[in-house]
Amino acid sequence: MDTSEFYGKEKISRILLKIAPPVMLAQLIQALYNIVDSLFVGKYSETGLTALSIIYPLQLLMIALAVGTGVGINTDMAYYFGIRQEKKAEEVAGIGTPLAVFLWIVFAAVCYLIMPFYARISTNSEEIIRDVVVYGRIVCVVSIGLFTEGVWSKILQARGDMKTPMVAQIAGAITNIILDPILIFGMFGIHKFGIAGAAIATVIGQIVAALVVMRKAFVRSPEKSCYLPHIKRIYQLGIPNILMQSAYTFYIFGLNMILAGFSDQAVTALGLYYKWQSFFFIPLGALQTCIVPVISFNYAAKDQERCKAVLKESLIAGMALMFLGTLCFEFLPVQMLSTFSKDAQVIAIGTNGFHYIGVAFIPMVTSLIFPVYFQAIGSAVKSSILTVVRTMVLFVPLGYLFSRFGLQYFWLTFPVTEVLTTLVGFKFYRSQQA
């Protein structure tokens, strides 16, 4: 079945069941990598675990630039496939590699220079500062695999190939998991690198993943005259995703700064939430990835009813799956936290926080799916506004406000933010349908 038949006529539930599982499996392996990575670092040192929490926003920023550019390429290609202009779609794919390399060079240079400053504004501990600089410089400067794989995987997904990106993610994550203990603790005669070993394992895994997708996704550059109009459209479509992901960087950095006013253990507890979040958000992340080309295709084909049906079914499925996360966060927080840390203060702070955060999971489905929907139909302004409202207008200011009443009340930030963002999303959706 060709793309037009598949996206335009196939039953929506069957589309999601066909293209979502490979994405979910790849994200599951990636989530396991995140968990195992933190597990090994936590066993090596508690300060290393805090350093990972501090560097996490910068890693999100890298992902935002790489994947956001890839999403722009993916959405643009899906649009051209929808109007049966395959040549234009391949021109867009050919621009992907030069864009990825350019983004990597700029990001690597900036991060190398600012890393010591970033570490010092995040903590007063000299030991944690040293770990942040060592780990951060390696994962940011040697991030070419992350940037190229992020773009190449989206090119393949636009063509309907979900299997190869899945294999790439699995290969990269397994490589990382295998190398983590070897390089961190020094095994089989290899030097003990400590936290630098975790960073080295990470970038090697990213390069392995990039090499897997490179063979099918690399397309020769088109004529230079094609660059400007295509790049403009790529970022018109991709900026909402970049803003959404980048805003995560700034709001997590902001929340880290607020929690640093209480203790380093509070920062660590928040970091451990985001490690577990990567696992529990697998279904939601897969839905976000999979509905974009489907909605974009049908919107270009002027099938509004099918776009609405895709949104409805993805919201129902997302809420049903995220309810399982709510149950775990409400009833198993101690077990989840003690997997990484034996620090009683980290566990106590995190247990209280997990109870509040678990309540936020259901409204979080709508607050995260709506921006993706508006992005897919080309409503970049609405998508961007929702992202900005959630991450900048609400998260950090509310975090600061609630923190004034004490650390316990800080965690109210999560459910309140998701409910308010959902209400704004519904308002935008109703106005778009009118």
Automatic annotation (TrEMBL):
Pfam family, one: MatE
Membrane topology of this protein: Multi-pass membrane protein
Superkingdom to which the source organism belongs: Bacteria
Ranges annotated as spanning the membrane: 15-36, 56-80, 92-115, 135-155, 167-188, 194-213, 234-259, 279-301, 313-334, 354-373, 385-403, 409-429
Main subcellular location: membrane
Compartmental location: Cell membrane
Keyword set, alphabetical order: Cell membrane, Membrane, Transmembrane, Transmembrane helix, Transport
Name of the molecule in the record: MATE family efflux transporter
